[in-house]
Design brief:
This protein is an alpha/beta fold and 333 residues long. The chain is built from twelve helices and nine strands. Strands 1, 2, 3, 4, 5, 6, 7, 8 and 9 form a nine-stranded mixed β-sheet that branches. α2 links the parallel β1 and β2.
Length: 333
């Protein structure tokens, strides 16, 4: 038997080293797979400023996810571009479950509103869960002498030079509710977009703008305090949280049905096990008394759903808003 070690070529050594590296990489990847998710803090990107309804609902869900999964779920506000900046940021993030998007109805409107949009919700994202649905509510500054929708229409026609309405950004359901109002009534009021509901609400209360179709959760406390006057809700039925406030259709503006909604998306390719884990936590949260009470105060409604059901809902919203955006003539470059 020879005492010399067998000769191993340089190529064989390189190949062996490569194989070992690949094996290690696979092992590391396996360890990072959904069974152990999450192993570090998770970022939930919100395309609007803090204080608005999207932000409020996102923070409620982030707290539930943190408590259930043992890692911090941190809300990161990235306002601007009608939420497109945040959406595109998450589109480009790794599909590992550590960067998520709390999406609003806005993004389904943006698919038609922006001709050169970079993302496609159905192509670039994995639907996780629907977080909440809320009505919008038409509110006016008390300086406006209108206590009904018809009185607002009469006043706005007589004051076209100073009648303006606020929104949380171009392409939001708040903006498009205003555009729908203009289409249905022939009004020529001016749209003033803001980077989020909170700054828009500040100017509405201050009298810099006259009215707004805001999400009910952020507007209703100001109605209760007397800082704003509520004229109508935008849904087909009255809100249980404000049963005395009529609908737009009851007020003589029809057809009119606008519902804001919010939910969680992940970048395309996120492992289905991670998506399922996140979906379960959110659906389970809807049964908790604390969340039910918080939603009742917000005028929000919870709706359990699977990722597949949420995906179908998003697709229907994209298709449903397209003709409304086109009819309004609204476009954003």
């Amino acid at each position: 038997m020879s005492s010399h070690a067998p000769f191993i070529s340089r190529r064989a050594l390189v190949q062996a080293a490569g194989g070992l590296a690949a094996a290690c990489a696979l092992g590391t990847s396996a360890q990072a797979q959904p069974a152990n998710y999450p192993t570090k803090p998770v970022r939930i990107v919100v395309g609007f400023s803090a204080g608005g309804t999207t932000d409020v609902v996102a923070r409620l869900m982030a707290q539930e996810l943190t408590e259930a999964l043992g890692q911090s779920f941190v809300v990161d506000n990235k306002p601007g571009g009608g939420s497109n900046i945040a959406t595109d940021l998450v589109r480009q993030a790794p599909a590992d479950g550590y960067t998520l998007l709390f999406v609003a109805v806005t993004s389904t409107i943006n698919q038609t509103l922006y001709p050169n949009i970079k993302f496609d919700l159905m192509r670039d994202f994995e639907p996780v869960a629907l977080g909440a649905k809320v009505p919008n509510i038409l509110v006016v500054n008390p300086s406006v002498p209108a206590k009904t929708v018809q009185e607002l229409i009469t006043w706005a026609r007589a004051n076209e030079d100073k009648a303006s309405y606020a929104s949380s950004g171009s392409g939001t359901s708040i903006h498009m509710a205003g555009e729908m109002f203009k289409v249905r009534t022939g009004l020529k009021t001016q749209h003033i977009p803001y980077k989020g509901s909170a700054p828009a609400m500040t100017d509405l209360i201050g009298g810099q703008v006259q009215f707004m179709f805001d999400n009910m959760p952020s507007a209703w406390p100001h109605v209760q305090s007397g800082k704003l006057r509520a004229l109508a809700v935008t849904t087909k039925k009255r809100s249980p949280s404000a049963p005395d406030v009529p609908t737009m259709e009851e007020s003589g503006v029809a057809p009119f049905d606008v519902t804001s909604w919010f939910g969680l998306l992940a970048p395309k390719g996120t492992p289905p096990e991670i998506v399922a884990k996140l979906n379960k936590v959110m659906n389970d949260a809807f049964d908790k008394p604390g969340i039910q009470q918080a939603y009742a105060k917000l005028g929000a409604m919870a709706e359990k759903n699977s990722p597949q059901e949420f995906g179908k809902f998003i697709d229907s919203e994209v298709k449903g808003w397209a003709p409304i955006v086109k009819a309004s003539g609204a476009r954003v470059d």
